[in-house]
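Input chain follows. Return structure tokens only.
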Amino acid sequence: MSQRVLVVRMSAMGDVVQSTPVARGIKAASPDCRLSWIVQAPFAGLLEHNPHIDDLIVVPMRPGLRDLIEPWWRLKRGDFDIAIDLQGLLKSSIVTWASGATRRIGKEEAREAALFAYTEFSPERWDQQYVSQRYLEQCETLGVSRDDFQPELFLIDEDFKFVDEVYATEGLYGPEPVVVLVTFSAEPRREWPADYVVRLADMLIDRFDARVVLPGTERERERAQALSERMARPAVVVAGRTTMREAAAVLKRADLVIGVESGLTHMAYAVGTPLVCVHGYGPLRNTPVGPLTRAVYVQDVPCRPCRPSTPCDHRRCIMELTPDMVFEAVEDLVREADIA
């Protein structure tokens, strides 16, 4: 009988995207296994239509007791042999333990008393090229290689209806390159100053006659509109107008994405759009790598990496990362990838 494997990665957007190579890796190592994945509802769209996932178990973000009946039933009916907790928090470890799997694999650095749930521990290493490799390392005892670490999303025609309408309405089908600027992040310390964003947009407009698109959430829409109004040519603001899958389609359709380290930036990497990542305080393994990517960061910041809770009165990693530095990386990528 083929093995039944449960992957536990319930949130958040960027982390779920970065985890997707795990499904591909497990299926490559054990093509006959049945692979289930449990995820919270807001992020389930990132895993839809993934051919490596046989069963998607969706849990509401803030479930009541009645909301848990179906996912709990499916969890118990799964008869899992192996459960892999890619998250390493209390909520994910409880699910891992409740799966009843004989083998329960977790991260050695798991937090919030999560270690109780595991029968096997994956030690932390810091030599990864990209953070997806950390998740793949948890599966190495299953025969999974950490070398195939490119994240992936599987979009369908339906996902492109919104972006098709926007392109038609805003005249984006012309010869000008479309550049998506990902300027917002769930962690404000990752964000670039607004003046830098506007300056870079104006440089793109002046040099490439670019059409700039600003994505984001509903609560970021007002900020995106304010940025747009300051640009030499107003941007197309799609913040607050897309589902996650529609946002991925916006990123896929673009000629270039420039983004701070955020979920949308990792989504751009997953859909294969040429990408310049504006990297701040986090570990460098958080930055996408590959021939269609460029990472821009201040090199001589001795306090990197730091955590959001770490006091910081200088923000050198962001403030010294100038629009000129990013634009230089853009020009290099444009030459190499023949974008414009």
